[in-house]
Amino acid sequence: MKRFFLFLMTPIIALTLFGDADAELEFRSNLKVSPGHTTSPTIISEPSIPVYQAATKNSINSTKKGIQLHFRDYPLGEVLKNINDETGIRFNLSSKMANIPINVDIEAKYWKSSVRQLIKDFSRVEVWTNKHRTSQIWLVESNPYH
Question: What are phi and psi of 22, to 5 degrees?
Answer without folding.
Answer: -100, 120
